Amino acid sequence: MTHSSRPLAVFDLDGTLSDARHRQRFLERRPRDWNAFFSAAPADPPLPQGVAMCRAAAEECEVVYLTGRPERCRADAVAWIRARELPEGRLYMRGDDDRRPARRTKLEVLRTLGRGREIRMLVDDDELVCDDAERAGFPVVRARWAAAVTEGLKDAQERLGRT
Fold first, then answer.
1. Residue 38 φ then ψ, to 5°
2. Over the stretch 16-57, which tens digit does the pLDDT of each residue have?
3. Burial level of 68, CB count in 10 A (0-12/13-18/19+)?
4. What is the distance between the alpha carbons of residues 131 and 134, in angstroms, rounded to a whole number?
5. Element (H or E) spanning 2, and its range?
6. Is the peptide bond before 31 cis (omega within 30 degrees of 0)?
7. What is the H or E stretch that residue 9 is in?
8. Cα separation of 116 and 70, whole Å?
9. Is the pLDDT of residue 138 over 80?
10. Whole-Å CA distances, 15 to 19, 50, 148
């Protein structure tokens, strides 16, 4: 099977592969400190269940990373993935000025990826992303191994379109 014909396994970063709890405090204050929130991302510890699933998926699938983090965080995200020795894979990020909800931006990418390729799974912790992806016919694994996200992060994902 050639690389381009392998099914895709799509993994979220925050709350799926990385534990972002230590930086959620930056979203609980007013005003929210987005620079501090994203600057702290390189210190995220890995989530063992997500990392193990990602490595296992790479045996049969091409791994793709799909995050709500803005494009300006690309170097940090790539370095984090490499430092944890996760499978090589394309990284899709939201545009720096894209404030649409994560469930919309991610579904748009999934639909694009799914044209002509099988998406074996989307692994994500955001329930709204998972709900919309399932409704669109994508197989979903709900990453429920991280502690619940704070209301500040939920608001950032859905209403503010920031992560």
1. -75, -30
2. 999 999 999 999 989 999 999 999 999 999 999 999 999 999
3. buried
4. 5
5. none
6. yes
7. strand 8-11
8. 27
9. yes
10. 5, 9, 9
Two structure tokens written together for 94: 């939201």
Maximum CA pair distance of the chain?
51
Across the chain, how many H-helices and E-strands are there?
Answer: 7, 5
The Cα 47–Cα 15 span in angstroms is 8
What confidence category does residue 116 fall into, taking pLDDT thresholds of 50, 70 and 90? confident
Q: How far is CA 123 from CA 30, 138, 141, in A?
A: 31, 11, 5
- Going from the C-alpha of 46 to that of each of 3, 82, 89, 127, 145, the distances in angstroms are 27, 12, 17, 20, 11
Token output for 156: 């950032």
**Alpha-carbon radius of gyration of the chain:** 15
User: What average pLDDT does this structure show over 63-91?
Assistant: 97
Compute the mean pLDDT over every residue in the chain, rounded to the nearest whole number: 91
Looking at residue 10, its pLDDT comes to 98
Q: What integer pLDDT is reported at residue 1 of this predicted model?
A: 44
Using the Cα atoms of residue 78, residue 81, residue 84 and residue 87 in order, give the sign of their dihedral: negative
Query: What is the C-alpha to C-alpha distance for residues 77 and 32, in angstroms, rounded to an integer?
Result: 21
